[in-house]
Design a protein that fits this description.
This protein is mainly alpha-helical and about 280 residues long. About 70% of the residues lie in helices and about 0% in strands.
Length: about 280
């Protein structure tokens, strides 16, 4: 039985959180060890065009593992949808968002290797995609069942204000929290470096301006959630909750990259040693 089916089976039979936590921990460990990221993806933190699996042979060895892992995920989702006799068109939306992310990563790679530092506006056109928020949103919607209709997926794919505001929050909080460390290890210019070069200003000024944009992003999200919209509330909540996670990760420092501190403690508290109710 596939992992998603096992999870659903557990959820239906027994809703007790301790069972789900134990399953999540063991299943995630099996999946993560199978990828062997330290060996296959040494450039990644330890934690494409439309083709089939045979196209992996055209890629460098380190990319073949990544390609196959992604291909297996989409194949498993499609198989699960067939088993449940549900619609699978949502997988195409997820694939499209992943391809857009890959293209944006390629653009950033070109900037990095050429030493190019774009203006903030041009940077954000690419960096809002590489924040991964739209991709994560589309993938989360695919797993929400019948309420994730074609109309809802079309709405999200067209980057409505709610999704764009959340992407701005994600990108700018990430950049402000982690740009200094990333520049030391070798990374494309962040929004901070772009602002400093474009305006000849100190980074503190960039922080002030970007914090204003983040604050306005939260205002836009609140506004979108309060006004009538023909999208199920649970779908909107999923997008808002993802933005909340980003806020948690980057509110004081880059807790995602340096995960062996605050983030480790939070995960331990909620999943490893949860409070009994």
């Amino acid at each position: 039985m596939k992992s998603y089916a096992i999870y659903d089976h557990l959820r239906q039979i027994d809703g007790r959180m301790e069972n789900l936590r134990e399953f999540d921990k063991s299943n995630s460990r099996i999946w993560w060890k199978g990828l062997d990221c330290p060996k296959n993806f040494p450039f990644a933190r330890d934690r494409v065009a439309e083709r089939d699996i045979s196209a992996a042979n055209e890629l460098p060895p380190y990319m073949r593992h990544c390609y196959k892992a992604l291909f297996d995920v989409y194949e498993e989702i499609e198989e699960l949808a067939i088993q449940r006799e549900t619609k699978i068109f949502g997988v195409d939306y997820a694939k499209t968002s992943m391809k857009e992310l890959a293209r944006a990563y390629m653009e950033e790679a070109k900037w990095f290797h050429s030493g190019y530092v774009p203006a903030v506006e041009k940077y954000l056109r690419v960096a809002l995609v590489t924040s991964g928020f739209l991709m994560l949103s589309m993938h989360s919607l695919v797993g929400m069942g019948e309420i994730a209709t074609k109309e809802a997926l079309d709405w999200a794919a067209n980057e409505p204000l709610l999704v764009r505001a959340a992407s701005i929050i994600c990108r700018l909080t990430d950049d402000m929290a982690g740009h200094e460390f990333e520049q030391k290890r070798g990374h494309v210019a962040s929004a901070v470096e772009c602002y400093v070069k474009e305006n000849g200003a100190p980074k503190q000024e960039a922080y002030v301006e970007f914090q204003k944009m983040v604050t306005n992003g939260w205002k836009d999200m609140n506004k979108e959630c309060l006004q009538p919209i023909a999208i199920p509330k649970s779908l909107l909540e999923g997008i808002v909750n993802l933005a909340r996670v980003i806020h948690l990760l980057y509110q004081d420092k880059d807790n995602y990259t340096h995960s062996n501190t605050k983030l480790k403690n939070l995960i331990t508290f909620f999943l490893v040693d949860p409070m009994r109710i």
